[in-house]
Amino acid sequence: xxxxxxxxxxxxxxxxxxxxxxxxxxxxxxxxxxxxxxxxxxxxxxxxxxxxxxxxxxxxxxxxxxxxxxxxxxxxxxxxxxxxxxxxxxxxxxxxxxxxxxxxxxxxxxxxxxxxxxxxxxxxxxx
Length: 127
Hints:
- By secondary structure, the chain is of the alpha+beta class.
- It contains 1 helix and 5 strands; from the N terminus they run ββαβββ.
- β3 (78-84) and β4 (91-97) form a beta hairpin.
- The radius of gyration is 15 Å and the shape is globular.
């Protein structure tokens, strides 16, 4: 398997020399989003606030390993982990959200059922 990249050119400050990773999906603002603040060491095309990992046959241990990587990445505010069993009889997810600059310890996961909706709070509360 080739080298995976989470950013296009150089890793952001503090991650130099690290292995490069690629999530299953990423979302982030562009320089056209009013109020978006670019973290130091990143360029707009490499700035993502949501990382998504989907594991089939992988189990929670593999997804937890990838989540640990994204928790260290500058700018990431949310991590969505989705686990599907090989038989596709088990559908589960976990949504992690950065709070006060840190990701709390997460271990719980929820079943995905018809009508499951994930809610992201995009606005920071007024202080």
